[in-house]
Amino acid sequence: MLVKTFNENSKEAKVDIKNIEKLLGAQNVGSYDSGHMGCQILRFERNGQREGLVVKFAPKADQSALNEVRGNLHGYKEMKALGMSELVPSNMGELTLSDGEGVVMRDLGFSMNALNGGEAACTLLLKRLMRIIKNTVVEFPGRSLENERPMFVDEVMSHMSRFTHQGVPELLALLKQSDWTGKWGKSALMLLDFTPDNIFLHAEGISFMDPWMQGTYLGNPAVSLGQFVASMQRADMADAQKVGRMFEDECVSKLPPLLGCDVLTVERSFRLGRTLQCVLSSYVRRESDKALAAIFMARAHGFWS
Hints:
This protein is about 45% helix and about 15% strand. The protein is α+β, with helices and mostly antiparallel strands. The protein has two domains: about 5-105, Phosphorylase Kinase, domain 1; about 110-300, Aminoglycoside 3'-phosphotransferase, Chain: A, domain 2 (Alpha-Beta Complex). The two termini are about 35 Å apart.
């Protein structure tokens, strides 16, 4: 995230900052760059302390931003219920004001993308994440009726359809026609939008910000790690190619004995996560850089052709 000074007179200022300061007993000290959905990311410090807080705020008039905040809160609640509490940022709470809604949490500092720690940071992430994954293993929830496709695959596809633009309908048809038979084993952690921008490494462990509203947060963890790798490579982060091979190798070696699935299942799940990220990368560039958007979409199709 990029830090900037907050200007109450700017066009972006749609929030009663003084009201939030009073509610938190804290002073506004700036903001982070806003996300794609219109939320404002505000920074505060407790009065008389050095404790940093972040408020992700959705103005009442912005329905897409409100949906994102409500989806985040739902995601955090589900994560806690499913054994992923270690990934939920500390000091997290909900804000409801007359001019909007928000999520408040401890300021986690810089994301993995911002710090760009390369192989060493990603090795630590993988070690910590695998421990959490073991705590979330449950019986496989079932398959859809169509082509024995696992339900979590339908979950990922439903999010691709949220970002429909040129090439997505054809990609979804390709995915539906794919062979999804196999030994899928049990399910475990499957967080979408699991990217270096949303992950923070710190002394206490890992924090994951901005979970999506998902129908299920369980599937094959290789989906999350595949999306992480695709996002890392898209941003040309340090050691991105090497980390990609390391993550896929770790998934192939560790997940089959843990979940009782076969290697093909892990490979397809990893590919599915990479596909999702390519769709997102294409979507956000569909107007600003149509040529690059087309490259990402072609890459998504290439995973299944």
